[in-house]
Write a structure and sequence with these properties.
Helix content: 25-40%
Bound molecules: 2-(butylsulfanyl)adenosine
Oligomer: single chain
Largest sheet: 6 strands, antiparallel
Number of helices: 25
């Protein structure tokens, strides 16, 4: 017998199990009961010990080990799975009257049977269903279209408030449903970091939660600090569950779920309205977003009696809050100059608490916006914040205006500045354009820095070690004025740079190697990085694929440029004007000489959609809109914005608008589902 196989792994297994159990207990205390029983260092040490043992003895590692919380598994795609129980949505309303109707109808239908309601928070996140068998998490699936969703089990395992193993008593087989939400503070921190790295910030915590669950790298998801709020439990026939909704949630809490404590049993409409009223005001004190209140009949045996409508149960309804709106004085307007020279007016507001954050500034878009809203000096503005985290100016507070205004002297209107607030150059407003811009592109500091920041940003050249502060440092030292200068930087110029010698040996080496690595960035992204007005990522890709190299692109006239899909006349003109300028040509030549990619042959991954034109509409389960468009192109297809007789297929997502469907039906264009699309390209 071979000596090694004789080694008894039993003591190791036991030790690993003990470690896992202890880590589970500590996690539970920390995330469910807000109690820290050991120091962070001690916790990390135990986690590392278990990780080490698992890599040494992979056959002893449990799929539900607490190390899975740290992530590390990578999902290339998310498997589509069918829900065992369809994930219904709720009827919803903004009107209290409809809540009264709901209550009266329910009482009428239940015809004297005693019952009560539960009122609870409507979490503003992403709905998921968790399947537990024998107390172990076996699968986590997103709502998707209600019938099928994405298997996001590996990412779900990284969420600390999702129990991997249940404690105490539990049903043998059931599904726990709830919402994954992004708490405000974690959301803000993550968005700030994204912006610092030149990435697009998420519009709101809901989008961010949804994006996080679809991350390919579960270790990234683990960093996102998501929270799972459980609100529903169901099981197959024959599995005994408590016969009240509130009883089920109480039980779930004992099993180890984090069930939010904000649930009330209400006996009549008065109590329901009081609950709604309370949370409409108090909701911003919560650490996460809610967008309404859910009212359910508490006695579950009555659910069958009340039944379902076409897509939602008759025993529950959601009341949705209106976007919160406040009025606050406009203290002044500043004018921000962006990288393309566009000057954006920004309202400086008297700080006001709105939707969980203090609002101090809001964009006023352009001169037309100010004029259309008739915003004047001394006005108070109405600011709104819905699900979106970015506050919006929705109008002037007319009541305040009346108080301010002296009968004989109306408030004075704003005058857009005539010269650039940064460099004093007279501003230009091109015919037919709403925005003013500063034409001094080569001498206006925020434009120069803005272009550099854009160039190095993640989606462009992705030069991570060059943040805005570094760029400012290089610019102020006179080393870098335009993007080509970056590639002339030498080590000895960098070391010791900054007031406290911010850049050291290592920093200089990192920067130079990041610049070196950027020479591999494909042509389409180099083109995007140049920062030509109106040329976004999509436009750059289209131009790169059409012309295949920079010389052909530079030689093209406006007409030819405008023929490229998604490149309109305005963009075409901007492109040819950009390349017409000698200083831009010289930058291009210097970048070429430095070794950046100035050409790239592009071939579709497959020719399955060659010669076809597809239109996409609605929301997809497997792709974002941009992803499905890119996917179509990668198979050789063209994407059009509207249905016409040239359309081959209309790919219909969820909630597709009725117009596109009607048009397709009228023209006899074939409508296919997302799954049929996938079958088409993957067959
Ligand atoms: S109960 C069949 N309770 O709101 C009833 N839903 O359209 C199942 N939601 O998709 C839903 N908070 O994502 C319920 N406390 C709560 C909820 C909640 C948020 C979401 C859920 C659902 C939508 C209702």
């Amino acid at each position: 017998m071979d000596l090694f196989s004789a080694i008894d792994t039993e003591p190791v297994r036991e030790h690993m199990e003990q470690l896992a159990a202890e880590l589970d207990r500590l996690n539970h205390e920390y995330y469910m009961n807000d109690r820290s029983l050991v120091s962070d260092e001690e916790f990390d040490r135990m986690m590392r010990e278990l990780q080490d043992l698992e890599s040494q003895y992979p056959e002893l590692a449990s799929p539900l080990s607490p190390t899975k919380r740290v992530g590390g598994e990578v999902n290339k795609t998310f498997r589509q799975v069918q829900h065992r129980f369809p994930m219904l949505s709720l009827g919803n309303t903004y009107s209290l009257e409809e809540i009264e109707d709901f209550e009266a109808r329910t009482r009428r239908l239940l015809d004297g049977i005693p019952f009560s309601y539960t009122c609870e928070l409507k979490y503003d996140g992403v709905a998921i269903g968790l399947t537990y068998r024998h107390g172990q998490l076996v699968q986590a699936v997103t709502r998707g279209n209600g019938t099928t969703g994405d298997d996001i089990t590996t990412n779900a395992k990284t969420i600390p408030t999702i129990p991997l193993r249940l404690t105490g008593d539990y049903p043998d087989d059931f599904e726990a449903r709830g919402e994954v939400v992004y708490p405000f503070d974690a959301f803000e921190a993550m968005n700030n970091q994204r912006e610092a790295e030149g990435e697009e910030p998420f519009a709101n915590p809901r989008n961010a939660a949804s994006g996080s669950l679809k991350l390919q790298d579960s270790a990234e998801c683990a960093k996102r600090k998501l929270l799972f709020c459980m609100y529903f439990m169901m099981g197959p026939d024959g599995i005994a569950l408590p016969d009240t909704h509130s009883g089920r949630l109480d039980w779930a809490r004992q099993m180890g779920f984090r069930v939010q404590p904000y649930i009330r049993e209400c006996k009549d409409i008065g109590e329901i309205k009081a609950f709604i009223d309370h949370w409409d005001k108090a909701r911003w004190e919560l650490p996460f977003g809610i967008d309404g209140i859910v009212i359910k009949v508490n006695q579950t045996p009555l659910w069958d009696r009340l039944g379902l409508t076409a897509k939602s149960p008759r025993w529950a309804i959601a009341f949705k809050f209106k976007a919160e709106r406040v009025s606050t004085p406009l203290e002044s307007i500043s004018y921000q100059v962006g990288r393309t020279g566009i000057v954006t007016p920004v309202a400086n507001l008297r700080p006001v608490w709105l939707g969980g954050t203090t609002v101090r500034r809001a964009t006023l878009v352009n001169a037309d916006f100010i004029e259309k809203m008739d915003i004047r000096e001394g006005d108070s503005l109405l600011i709104e914040k819905g699900g979106e985290i970015i506050p919006k100016v929705v109008g002037v507070d007319e009541v305040e205006r009346l108080k301010m205004k002296d009968e004989n002297s109306p408030l004075s209107t704003f005058r857009f500045p005539l010269v650039c607030p940064e460099c004093g150059t007279p501003l230009v407003r091109a015919e037919g354009e709403a925005g003013h811009y500063c034409p001094n592109s080569d001498g206006c500091r925020p434009q120069i820095l803005g272009r550099l920041e854009h160039f190095v940003s993640r989606r462009a050249m992705n030069i991570e070690s060059l943040g805005p502060e570094r760029l400012e440092l290089l610019y102020d030292a006179g080393l870098v004025h335009n993007v080509a200068d970056l590639y002339d930087l030498r080590r000895e110029q960098l070391v010791g740079l900054g007031t406290d010698a911010t850049i050291q040996d290592r920093g200089a080496d990192n920067l130079l190697s990041a610049l070196e690595a950027s020479k591999e960035v494909p042509f389409e992204r180099v083109l995007f990085a140049l920062g030509i007005r109106y040329v976004g990522e999509v436009g750059a890709r289209k131009l790169a694929r059409y012309f295949q190299n920079i010389d052909a692109l530079m030689a093209a006239g406006t007409d030819e440029l405008a023929q490229v899909e998604d490149v309109g006349e305005v963009t075409a003109r901007a492109v040819s004007e950009w390349f017409a300028r000698p200083e831009h040509r010289s930058i291009v030549e210097r970048l070429r000489a430095a070794g950046l990619q100035m050409s790239g042959e592009w071939k579709a991954a497959s020719g399955k959609l060659d010669g076809m034109t597809l239109v996409v509409s609605g929301v997809f389960d497997r792709f974002s809109r941009d992803e499905i468009k890119a996917d179509i192109e990668s198979h050789g297809g063209k994407v059009a914005g509207s249905v016409s007789s040239k359309t081959t297929y209309l790919v219909a997502g969820n909630n597709m608008g009725p117009e596109k469907r009607k048009k397709a039906e009228k023209l006899g264009v074939q409508i296919i589902t997302e799954q049929q699309y996938l079958d088409l390209v993957n067959e």
